[in-house]
Amino acid sequence: MLAIVSAILFFIAFLINAADxxxxxxxxxxxxxxxxxxxxxxxxxxxxxxxxxxxxRR
Length: 58
Fold this sequence. Notes:
Elements: H1 2-18, H2 29-45
């Protein structure tokens, strides 16, 4: 799920950069790309993958 969110953020950053859309200082293509990289790093770290049950009964 987080990988899909990061892909969407990368696409938004690409559109902002390719269309040369003027945005405010907070919502630049670089900032959106960095948020996407953060979400991708969280995905690779295993955050958001669901609950892991360690104590299974046999």
